[in-house]
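The data are quoted verbatim for completeness:
=====
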Amino acid sequence: MVKVNKIVAVVDDDGSVCRAIKRLLQVAGTGVDTFSGGDSFLRMLSSAPSYRPACVILDFEMPGINGLELLRHLAPTGVPVIFITADDDSAVRETALASGAAGYLQKPFTGAILVKAVEMALSGVPRP
């Protein structure tokens, strides 16, 4: 079970994905903030310097700032990032993980897999 005092940020341009992940993680016992894209997430980070989620679940392909660019912005903070994507290209997965992602999930995925990925990211357990 994910700890309740941890906030996970979900960044995805698909509102239904954000809502579904938010409900799932709230049931698992964690707080969730959702953002409709990388730009809105970066605005939050710059306007509220004390805001720091414990983990970011990030769509790989979004208009504007894509997931990989956003990961580069987050890298200095040490916040773990879990990519979610519909892309089944192994090169995309390898690029994401080589760039420092804590996890990579291909849509569709089960709630149990997502919760486990978040738990591993929050505990600092290295990805397999």
Strands lie at 7-11, 31-35, 55-59, 81-85, 103-106. The domain at 7-123 is CATH 3.40.50.2300 (Rossmann fold). The radius of gyration is 13 Å. The longest helix spans residues 15-27.
